[in-house]
Amino acid sequence: MTGADQPSVLVVAIGNPDRGDDGFGPAVAQRLRGRVPPTARILERGGDALALIEDWDGIPSVIVIDAMAPISEPGQVHRFDLTESPLPIGFAPSSTHALGVKETVELARSLGRLPQCLLAYFVEGEQFETGTPLSPVIAAAVEDVVVRVLAELWTILETKGKAQHA
Amino acid sequence: MANRTIRVDYIARVEGESSLELHVRNGTVDRVRLSIFEPPRFFEALLRGRAFGEVLDIVARICGICPIAYQMSGVHAVEDALGIEVEKPIRALRRLLYCGEWIQSHALHIVMLHAPDFLGYPDAIAMARDHGDAVQRALALKKTGNDLLRLLGGREIHPINARIGGFYRVLSRAELAPIADSLKRTRDRAIESLRWTAGFPFPEFERDYEFVALRHPGEYPMNAGRIVSSVGLDIAAADYETEFIERQVPYSTALHSTLKERGAYLVGPMARYALNRDRLPAEIRALADEVGLEPICRNPFRSILVRGVEVVYACQEALRLIADYEPPSRPFVPPEPHAAIGYACTEAPRGILYHRYSLDADGTILDASLVPPTAQNQDVIEDDLREVATAGLDLDEESLKARCEQSIRNHDPCISCAAHFLKLQVHRT
Predict the structure, then answer these.
(1) pTM of the model
(2) What long-range pairs does B21-24 form, CB within 8 A, spacing at least 24?
(3) ipTM above 0.85?
């Protein structure tokens, strides 16, 4: 992507809506549609995490949303700024994809292909059974993350706007 | 030498969950177990009672890396049952789809999963710091493969456009043309990638495999051909179960497949190449010669070169198919169900994939049999490990562990999705 069509911010929602709480990302993407600033783009990814490196090519700010295996309490939301440092040990998003998000982010870092700003929201899932919907506790976290991501988007765009006018 | 048990709890950089256990007694490896503990998935049972038209959507879910292979063996087997003959352009589009899968699957394995073994890195992430160009090339190759799958199949994971009798929608020449430009660039990158892997240090190691692959009168095999072997087997897919047998082993959830008469055999790129080198275009054979790939390669560590040659070929073949393409008169032949049995074998990136379906009069599936390449290679992988470990018993634990992992990855086993590390336990008694 280049030129006028290129968004300022990309929101990548990762997950499979047919695998229980792995559908968290797509559920957030669904609620974000129509509510994001015009220069933001929403992308759902269900498969190959490696493709993220191409997806965010040339886009300065990216927010990734995914589900992860429970480590403390299902429904708990974790926010990470991955721009400078990798995910802490133990925070590997639960993935039904070939190469995981964590590995892809670190591969991009090795290659110098990380966005200038990379934020991640991970929710701890409860179950990832085939053909099941989101668990109630995970579904309850969707709107919370939607609101937080919208706030992030506006902050990113405001910061960018100020930088341009400075 | 003391007795030892070498256990690898999780085999990484392969598709799926498996472990390895080696028992060493008096200095020789006397038992090797590659245990696949991926939960049984019961796809054959799941297919029973479903309509024949659902086959492709169901079997595509077996694998996120090689869904096309499952769709192609499925489509040919059902069409064999129903007596459907497709037009040449449909056949070309299917071969093009397969090219996309070979490109993306091989590119992933060559650079992301296998190359770190040769260069001494724990994973592709660490390797990327020193070999960024190679990793960037692999990402570009994989992207082109995925683009081809998305263009023809509707999406790259579990594509949705193939159907019994043809495709739901076929492309025009104009729709196919743009991807030719990226395929040309991809072919150049594939050649660079092959030359890069040719410089790797390859262990001295050879085994006298019985190679099994498809063979077609006029083309390097993908969708069609007879099942042949390096010791004279030559059968139609319909005779597969006469010659081959699947058996359960107590330590694995995957069946092991063997030749009834002769036991273990090898499928995959090494077998395809050994049995079909003469079906490759002259310039591809010249490239294989240039990188030192012998006409029959028996060193499994050098399988990475064969995969590299096949990626270049798949790019070139895709370009040829696009250049020659004329849309078919209709997107699909309407299938008319009747009671029948159909068989097919196609060349998945990892080797031959056999499907058999029994249909009743209204096309409901009564019975299905699917034999994936990895089930066929398990005995060979274990035999390789026995020899690799025997030769490496004097190595320190880390080196032996690395060599065993590398030996497994030589065959790119597709068990499911990969992590990237291996826990090795050695018990000395």
Answers:
(1) 0.89
(2) B21/B251, B22/B385, B22/B386, B22/B389, B22/B404, B24/B389, B24/B393
(3) no
